[in-house]
Design a protein that fits this description.
mainly alpha, 2 domains, flat
Length: about 375
Amino acid sequence: MNAVARPVLYRHFHRIAWLAVGLALCVIIFGAFVRLSNAGLSCPDWPTCYGRATWPQSTHEVVEHAASAIRPFETHKAWREQVHRHIAATLGMLVLILSLLAARRRRFGIATILLASAFVATAIPLYMHGEHVAASVLAIIGEAILLFAALRWSNLDLARVSALTLAVIIFQALLGMWTVTWLLKPIVVMGHLLGGLTTFALLVWMAWRATDQPIKLADAVSLRRWVIGGLVLLGIQIALGGWVSANYAAVACGLDFPKCVGRWWPPADFSQGFVLWRGIGVDYEGGVLDGASRIAIQMTHRIMAVIVALYVLGLGVRLFRTPGMRGWATLLVLLIIAQFTLGILNVKLNLPLHVAVAHNAGAVLLLFTLVSLIARLRKPE
């Protein structure tokens, strides 16, 4: 970053940003654990768990709560869902602090952030009391204020990206609510995953910009284009992975790899496998699609995995040939090989929980590496 564009930031801004990055990583990986251990509906109300800010300790504590009529209480699962919510709420507070710090030099900057946050905060108790329309209107107003501020402010002091990150994390909270109230609807589950990773990517970019440690290369512009291409492909693959998980299609091919149910190209129903909206009111836990539809999803994910792997390996070769970038090249190649291997092990070992969670973590590390390169690559002054 050159001297003219260097942001004027609060001196500990970068430290808070990196703390938020670490917490976002915890939220994503723990969220994967919650989803893959089938605990996503263990607290059928939101944001409480059977009416409690924490979670009930035994069955007799929930018999009189309305949520008990929706889903029986499971002690070993409820804590996972509610702990995930508390970690996510803590991350939201950190992002709010970053937004306030970044906007403090803007005219009405702090007031804008606080006003938007007040609308959203007011919406939560309204939702809990059944005023869903009023709560939605207030949440939309809060989001609109943040988006307008992000468009109006420049990014010299990271005010724009901070406001945008806060808007994303608020929408992410709404997706978390809809994940529960719409009974694990696949499009919402996938959107929740993408929202978490978008929040993580924005925080990583913000943290590197605040840290101000550019990598200066003569061909930085060309390299960034390569990296952006990899980021786009990775984003598509992550979305497909979320669709696989949301539709319980991870083992649709049985334990076969590279074949699927003993065939190179088994019968697959792509038209049904990729229907994004199927209405509200269906319980999607365990999946509702037939075998051919799930096979279509799994096969698409596998094909895209090969495309992403080949592209990232090519990017690794490109970086390896660039002086000073061999470390980054090695990291990318190792991560993509590990990620591809974990995907195969998910199939061959019948989706063990620790391997599935590690597969999610691998995607996050790849995302971190690519976003870091985009944030740091610069042409010499």
